[in-house]
Write a structure and sequence with these properties.
Blueprint (H helix, E strand, L loop, with lengths): L14 E4 L8 E8 L4 E4 L4 E6 L9 E6 L2 E2 L3 E3 L1
Length: 78
C-alpha cells in the first residue's frame, strides 16, 4: 500500500516561483494543491491550449487555455 503525503510546503493562495523545467523563472499563484499526488496548479505556468468542439450547429468551436499540474518540488515559495 502506498503511503499518502499529508502536507506540502505550499498551499492554495501562495505566491511561488518555478525553479526547474521548461517554465523556469515564471511566477504565479497556487490555484490548487493536489496533496495525494504532490502536484500543484499554478496560474500562468504550464499552460496548454485545449480545443473545444461546438455543442450545436449554431455555435463555434473554441480554444481554451488551461494550466496543468506541476510537481510541488519544482517550485519555491516567494
Amino acid at each position: 500500500m502506498k503511503k499518502v503525503q499529508t502536507t506540502m510546503h505550499v498551499k492554495k493562495g501562495d505566491k511561488v516561483k518555478v525553479i526547474t523545467g521548461s517554465n523556469k523563472g515564471k511566477e504565479g499563484e497556487v490555484m490548487r494543491a493536489l496533496v495525494a499526488t504532490n502536484k500543484i496548479v499554478v496560474s500562468g505556468v504550464n499552460v496548454v491550449k485545449k480545443h473545444k468542439k461546438a455543442a450545436n450547429k449554431n455555435e463555434k468551436g473554441t480554444m481554451i487555455e488551461m494550466s496543468l499540474p506541476i510537481d510541488a518540488s519544482n517550485v519555491k515559495k516567494i
